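Task: sequence in, structure out. Protein: RING-type E3 ubiquitin transferase.
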Amino acid sequence: MGALTSRQNAGVEEVDIVSNHAYKYPPRSGNYFGSHFIMGGERFDTPQPEAYLFGENADLNFLGSRPTPFPYPPPQANEPTKTLKSLVNIRKESLRFVRSPEGLSKAGADGDCEYLKATNFNIEFTFDCDARCAITIYYFSTEEISTTGITYSPRDPSMSSETYHYKRGANQQFCQVSHVFNPAKYLEDELNYDPERDMIPITIHCVTEEGTEGNSD
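Result:
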């Protein structure tokens, strides 16, 4: 580097990098930043002089005392990687509980409908699959990983749903009104997932039914 341009003094000052520790904030003289910066190959004027765009100004002292050469050296080659391909993808933002339509109302003696507070819910979500798949829902289950795959053991097998089979396709809707879940029967702590416990409150198990690779759980 060897020279530091000072806009305040409008001159050129010779700086010893080793002894004076260039790139130290605040600098003894001159300005730390220029009047513009380059991003994405375009030039942008600095809206606030002496403002660090990516943190606090005090963080600048954690940087090295020497500038980083540009262009940057290419990254070192790592071990070969293999892209993970999931044949079944559940769109997490679509997952929801929907109040079951059964028992929402009943006819009164005068023929009017009386509203009933239902506590049964259906589980609905949207998913995509590149192969035929089978979907099963387990409650309060434990997970066991082995060489043959993943196995889920529910606390009460009678609560588990039947296995539903779907064809290959995108934007499919999982909506089975015959399977309901009543969260009011359980404590809130049971329904919250705790990574320190082995119990998983609700598990949606998706398994492809074509080939031996790419099973999605």
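The CA atoms of residues 26 and 32 lie 7 Å apart.
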